[in-house]
Amino acid sequence: MSAGRLLALLSLLQTPREWPGSELATRLEVSPRTVRRDVERLRDLGYPVEATMGAEGGYRLVAGAAIPPLLLDDEEAVAVAVGLRTAAGQAVQGIEEASVRALTKLERVLPSRLRHRVSALNTATVPLVTGDQQPVDPSQLTGIAGAVTNRERVRFGYLDNGGVASKRHVEPYRLVAAGRRWYLVAFDVDRDDWRVFRVDRIADVFATGARYPARELPAQDAAAFVTSKLYSLVPTYEAVVVVDLPAAAVPPHLGPVEPVDERRSRVRTVDTLPWLAFRFATAGCEFTVEEPPELIDYLRELGGRAGRATQS
């Protein structure tokens, strides 16, 4: 069923008159039977549509029921509420307050049946917000997003990892949200190369008005490009680890698995040393590192620190 058609139907019904089904069908370019189904759908969503019989009969909204055209079923309403609550955990200035305001507006325009469900979800959940990243100005995010949509070059100041400030002239491609950080994937015009910028280190964004042709990103997508760039900043290692679990019981996040015997499996994966150590140390089973030696040394050092931390 087309949400756009439902919106159009509701807009017509909000006009203070009765609409014959045949006229609605003509306006919406559908059959009278489809109009009847759409009217039933509006009623299911809580919109009070009355029908009168006879040659002069038709459909109309109950007097005083000029409801804003927000058409959400149960699953959609809950999805919107979850999204707003999740947004409160993002590193964007004022996003938690804005999310609460948006949820309040959502509850006011929903039919009572859905309003109670969304209100219950809002009351029962609290976002876990950590303060380990600098918040991003929402107007800066929307400004960059607008430049991405319009294919418009922008200039901004940037502070790199080493604290060195520079001026950048880029063709923004995509914004990528990763945990509580935002990244901008863009083509750096002055450096003639693709780059990734942390949005919280960007300042004084200025849209130049100059448009640019589409470029092909040297990656499957923007998220994959950010991942590859972040990994390129630290060395990664190919690890071969035997875990004391049958192949069917090995958690998928550990990596590709091959059975060794009925109770052991060999895992091959690539990652940084801290993440390799974390993944296998928290797998909930005994394991033996076959390679690389750097991972063995890292785990030995980590184990020593953990042991010393427990000494009185």
Task: Please give a structural write-up.
It is a single chain. The chain has helices at residues 3-13, 21-28, 32-44, 74-87, 95-109, 112-124, 138-150, 222-232, 273-281, 293-309; strands spanning 49-51, 59-61, 152-159, 165-178, 181-188, 193-198, 202-211, 237-243, 257-259, 265-271, 287-291. By secondary structure, it is an alpha+beta fold. It has 4 domains: 3-61, Orthogonal Bundle (Arc Repressor Mutant, subunit A), CATH 1.10.10.10; 74-124, no CATH class; 138-232, Roll (SH3 type barrels); 237-309, Alpha-Beta Plaits, CATH 3.30.70. The strands form 3 sheets. Strands 6-5-4-3-7 form a 5-stranded antiparallel beta sheet. Strand 9 (257-259) and strand 10 form a beta hairpin. Helix 4 (74-87) runs parallel beside helix 6 (112-124). The protein is extended and about 85 Å long. The termini are far apart. 20% of the residues are buried.
Q: Care to give the gist of this entry?
A:
This protein is an alpha+beta fold.
Going across the biggest sheet, name each strand in turn.
6-5-4-3-7
Order of helices and strands: HHHEEHHHHEEEEEHEEEHEH
Question: How many H/I helical runs?
Answer: 10
Roughly how much helix do the residues carry, as a percent range? 25-40%
CATH topology of the largest domain: SH3 type barrels
Q: What would the average pLDDT be, to the nearest integer?
A: 82
Topology:
Elements: H1 3-13, H2 21-28, H3 32-44, E1 49-51, E2 59-61, H4 74-87, H5 95-109, H6 112-124, H7 138-150, E3 152-159, E4 165-178, E5 181-188, E6 193-198, E7 202-211, H8 222-232, E8 237-243, E9 257-259, E10 265-271, H9 273-281, E11 287-291, H10 293-309
Antiparallel strand pairs: 1-2, 3-4, 3-7, 4-5, 5-6, 8-10, 8-11, 9-10
Helix pairs in contact: 1-3, 2-3, 4-5, 4-6, 5-6, 9-10
